[in-house]
Amino acid sequence: MPTDAAWRAAWPWVAAVVAGLALAWPPDRGRSVAFTAINWIADPARALPRRPSPLAMGVDDDADVVTAHDVEEQAYESLYRRSWFGRVRLRMRDAEDPLEPATERPLLVAAAAIVVMWVTARSRTSPPRPSP
pLDDT digits over 8-20, tens only? Predict the structure, then answer.
């Protein structure tokens, strides 16, 4: 059983793991808090241009629709080619959780358990810190 000093040394690590788990936990629908924050940091004013969806079949005869599509695509491509920072912002704005929630949740719990076990084992073997 770890001593009180060992737990005092380990609690910041355990708290960081719990906070990371809470931020990365995927909801049933939508994005996790972490990815929502990344999306917002990249585009807080929602001013970045969106990549337009492909033109629908049969719309290519309508010159106004084609022109509007071309303008949207030009704005997106211009920002994408202008700088590496623009590319990073566009990628961050469109970032999503990498896995399905049913897969991601057990992996997050397993990773958190491994980190907590490692920190606990490390706190047992490390000498206690000198008190001030």
Answer: 777 788 888 889 9
Distance CA 21, CA 111 (A): 9
Token digits of residue 51:
């990549």
Nearest to 66 by CA among 55, 76, 51, 52: 55
* Tens digits of residue pLDDT in 76-92: 899 889 989 999 999 99
Domain boundaries, the chain: 4-125
For residue 87, the surrounding DSSP H or E stretch is: helix 84-93
CA distance 28 to 21: 15
What predicted TM-score, i.e. pTM, was given to this entire model? Answer: 0.68
Beta strand ranges found along 17-124 (DSSP E): none
* Backbone angle region of 58, left / alpha / beta, with phi > 0 → left and psi within -120 to 50 → alpha: left
**95 near 38, Cβ under 8 Å?**
yes
| C-beta of residue 50 within 8 angstroms of C-beta of residue 89 | no
Q: How far apart are CA 24 and CA 32, in angstroms?
A: 6
